Amino acid sequence: MRTAADVVALALAEDAPWGDVTSEALLPADAAADAQLVAREPGALAGTGAAREAFAQAARLTGGSLDLLELSADGTRFAAGDVLGRVRGTARGVLRAERVALNLLQHLSGVATHTARFVEAVAGTGARVVDTRKTTPGLRALERAAVRAGGGHNHRWSLSDAVLVKDNHLAVLLASGLDVTAALRSVRAAVPHTTAIEVEVDRLDQLDAVLAADVDVVMLDNFALADLAEGVRVVRARSRALVEASGGVTLQTVGAIAATGVDLVSVGSLTQNPRTLDLGLDTTVAA
Fold first, then answer.
1. What's the pLDDT score for residue 208?
2. Is 200 an active-site residue?
3. Which residues contact 71 (CB under 8 A, 6 or more apart)?
4. Which residue intervals define the domain Quinolinate phosphoribosyl transferase N-terminal in the entry (predicted)?
């Protein structure tokens, strides 16, 4: 799993593969700069660890210093005009890091802000808003942290750490003439006892075979509201499994979905298409 340090190193190399020719030709090596991170619009902050890493790595790359880096914590809610952080150091390093730091802060704060809106929309229902594996390749760890900063929760991290039997798995089982309940029970015997088992269904009549296998989570995918409520009732009557709703969830629909009694609502758009937040780094010559 790529860490913030890994992501930043790749981004800095991409942005200045042979150095920053402008700053190196124009600015003395010992010129200093003072910059403030300013919010141009309200939101929730995320990506501060990556931003710190960008400035630290850029200072090392340019042979300069980083005297001060103050940043508000991930999860901080802010208004337009708020100063969220300050960095002071050698100008070449500050300017080398600027775009990489802002790209990550703006994108990840967009994820956190988008998530916070979904969390607010389900307030009082008891349902958790969770993300999916629809993450930007290489940025999963950072985007998942941003979801948490926005008040959301994480689904399984990868294909390796939980069982999620989806519609395509079930289709293969049925095409092979296998019994779904027996197959799911064999999964329970094959994986460690700490491994959660979740099964996706897209019709109410699939629940009997799944619940008979004593799974941990039942995902009701693309259900109408009335069918969601009925699915919750059936699962609660026969099982201790958690109930997850998924499929095309929007800010306009998530509240009603959560009100059906589901435990979890998975939302691909948290990480798939959040709007980048407008943050700026205002730089001046340091005194």
1. 94
2. yes
3. 37, 48, 51, 52, 84, 85
4. 20-109
The residues with which 128 forms a beta bridge, in sequence order, are 264
Domains of the chain, CATH where assigned: 4-118+274-285 (3.90.1170.20), 121-272 (3.20.20.70)
Structure tokens at 276: 């980048």
Find all residues with CB under 8 Å of 1, minimum gap 6, and list them: 140, 141, 157, 158
Options 86, 166, 185, 188, the catalytic residue: 166
The answer to whether residue 88 is catalytic is no
**Other Cβ atoms within 10 Å of 30 Cβ, number:** 10
Block means of pLDDT (10 residues each) for the chain, 287 residues, are: 93 96 94 95 98 95 87 97 95 96 98 98 98 95 98 95 90 83 92 94 94 96 97 97 96 98 97 94 73
- 68 forms beta bridges with 88
The CA distance from 101 to 15, in Å, is 11
Q: What's the token pair of residue 77?
A: 């809610």
Choosing from 2, 133, 134, 188, the catalytic residue is: 134
Do residues 240 and 214 make contact, with C-beta atoms less than 8 angstroms apart?
A: no
User: What are phi and psi for residue 74, nearest 5 degrees?
Assistant: -55, 140
pLDDT of 235 reads: 98
